Amino acid sequence: MLTAVLLLAACEDGGGGPTVNHRPLAPVLSGPDTVVVGEEAEFEAEVLDPDGDDVRVFVAWGDGDTTDYGEFIRSGQVVQFRHAFGSAGTFLARGRSQDVGTLFSDWSAGDTVVVRPRPFR
Question: What is the model's pTM?
Answer without folding.
Answer: 0.80
